[in-house]
Predict the 3D structure of the following.
Amino acid sequence: MYEFPDTRNSLIARVQELGDGVSWSEFLAIYQPVVFRMARRRGFQEADALDVVQQVFFSVSRSIGNWQAGDDMPPFRAWLSTIARNAITQVLMRRKPDVATGSSDVSEMLLEWPDRATTTAELEREARAGVFRWVANQVREEFSPDTWAAFWRTAVDGIPIVEVAQALGRSTGSIYVARYRVLARLKERAEEMSQQWDLSSPELES
Amino acid sequence: MKTCCLALSNETLQRLAANDLAPDELRDIEHHVDHCLDCRALLDRQMDADSLDNEIIVSLATTIESIPSVATDELLDLGPSTASLLRLLGPTDDPNMLGRIGSYEVAAIVGRGGMGVVFKAFDRSLHRFVAIKMLLPHLAESAAARKRFAREAKAAAAVVDDHVMPIHGVAEWNGMPYIVSPYCRGVTLEKRIRDQGALSVEEVLRIGMQTALGLAAAHAQGLVHRDVKPANILLDEGVERVQLTDFGLARTTDDIGMTRTGLLAGTPQFMSPEQTRGEALDARSDLFALGTVLYTMSVGQPPFRGPNPLAVMQKIANDRAPTVQALNPNIPPALSRLIERLMEKRPNQRIQSASEAAEQLRELLASRQRGGLPAGRPRSVLRTWHVATMSAVCFIAAMGFYVPWKLAATPTPQPNAAVANSPTTNEVEPVSATSATTSWNAGWGVERLDLDEVWGRVQALERRSDPDMSTNDDTFRRAIDQLRRAIEQVDRRFDQWSQ
Ligand SMILES: [Zn+2]
């Protein structure tokens, strides 16, 4: 019988599918970098930051079984988002980088250890950015590599449209149009997903 | 350079954003913008129309510190990469396109499931977009799977019905079979439910009826769908038409021996009990799934849920879901009963055919539209039944904490008798009322509970597989039974009283 190389891995992936058909991988792809970045920003060495990441997701994974459908329960992604944000704040507020390994800056840094409000705001911002990056990875598939490059180089890298057109060997008009198409799609999906993950920006709601 | 203000109308901008323009229309616009300063300025202004643009761009610009491998990496979904999917395509001249499949220009990858990938493609000869569904490369390695895929698709193509997505054709590209069907801008029922939760009773009936009609047409040809779920039900926007997609395709994975465990087929939430056991399926399996879909539309959530697919499958095989009426009092009892009859565990106890189900749904819809078919009971009145509720709540809360000595020491509360006579006196000895309700409220975030909610909780407790609250425990079982009877009695008296 033919062996299917992907089978074992996709089995694992499916078993890890969470409530509501949200896959563990989607969740990790959004939140893992968030935790890692925040930990690094707080002075954790890479290995320790990874430790923090694992600690957070271990604690989240233990809570996942607690979700049950119900009128008074939030939708799964929103609920998971809250659980994750609580776990992240908790771990980051409690754990500090190992002072013994640090330099003289460390004690200074500990004095300015971010408080809960700062951490919460930072987390909110980072999680939204995490969702946007995840959305970008998805949306990228909907466009040809050329169209995506036209968007990325002009909008993200800030290269003038005429230069990008020359580099890609396309007309200036097509770069304008490509940039618009990709950004419009990104916005649509970003709004949808940030809402689903309960990360709608307060100023956008009002 | 000339100037104009007309080429990029709002409608054109919208169609650009929706990726909805045929390749030649797109080229015309690109050409125009190339020569029109007004339109360039217009597109520039669109760039920072709101703060979301900025936030997105900043997020993308300030990445992407890659994370070194973490232990959890092994849990990442290692489905086919985009690159591997793009390698399936032939080359194209159009820089806006991803590639080619046969004579179709592929514009985007619009979906990928456990089994296949869906491309959006442009059919030049008929000047329209189509959806192309292709088996995932690793599945297509199996000759049996390839043949089955083509055979099922051809069988499905023979079903001509308003409520079954038509299939334009079945063909092969580099040895890989693919299906061409219309490209739909509508949304799936799954998305509708995810966005808006439970649907209105009329919508439940209308969508349910049309789905049943589609099933009936296919069943008449001897086809079993095997994967009826909201993601396979398309809602045509504007027109009130529902179409069932992906007939028989789930069967392809049988050849690779995967649906037996249901793992490869994706979410098992809409499987029938016989399907979770890997038994032979007939049309009645689809009827169970239809019941599950109706259920999901009625309450906004599928009936069987769990932390992983295996847990869900166990529940499908063994547990009874709470009735939809218990979860959503707006649902008429007749619909609730119909759903229960579709979701009978044993196929021979179900409604036996899709056409019968369609007929019943049609009758319910007609009587609903005539103004009949009221909801179960007036919820607002029920909300005043605090006393009955309170005692039940305390009781459940106490059980939630599982304090066996308390259960044993406290006589069964009898809210039925006390309450039915006088809703304003509380003769029931609350079980550590304050602490229990406080914790209850803290746990669930509810201030007031009504009978329906209590009922839902009881059933949730029953379903719980928490080892600390073993349902084998006799005391617990008895307590639950008593509570269930008490609630039923209150419920009945209330019904009599309100008539
Ligand atoms: Zn113009």
Q: What stands out?
A: Residues B 4, 7, 32, 36, 38-39 surround zinc ion (CB under 6 Å). The first helix of chain A runs from residue 7 to 15. Chain A is about 70% helix and 0% strand. Chain A touches chain B through 80 residues (CB under 8 Å).
